[in-house]
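ingest -> validate -> predict -> emit
validate: passed (alphabet ok, no gaps, 155 aa)
predict: started
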Amino acid sequence: MRLPLLTAILCGVFLGLIWPSAEPGGSAAAVRSDKPHKTVLERSSSGSFFVTAQVNGQPVQFVVDTGAETVALTKEDATRAGVPFDPAEFTKVGRSASGDAIGQEVHIKSIDVDGKKRDDVGGVVLEGLDVSLLGQNYLRRLDAVQISGDKMILH
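emit:
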């Protein structure tokens, strides 16, 4: 029952891990709001879309990962945002092309991208993740997500 969800997460994690240039400090400044309801992200030189979101009121840099079923946080980002987790409780949460994914399912009180605040978001904290992933369980709660050329538009 959780296997398809975790498989989708891990596909996104794998993509994040194989793109070495998708590191924190990437193009998070590429966010701009044309109108209050529309956020435009510019594709980075690595080919990824980065965004800085507020997680429980704290800034977290994400790769927007349309292939990830759920939000995945690094241990450092989860700690900074006050998302409770216990590394002693980490277990295998799925598999990816690079092997087993070890982590813990968590509850995130809120994620806010440029005023698009969504409460009660599920997620995982993953061991060895270099950059947090903004997955479908947040994205599908938006009105629309469009990719055109080197722009991603969040409505």
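The domain at 39-154 is CATH 2.40.70.10 (Cathepsin D, subunit A; domain 1).
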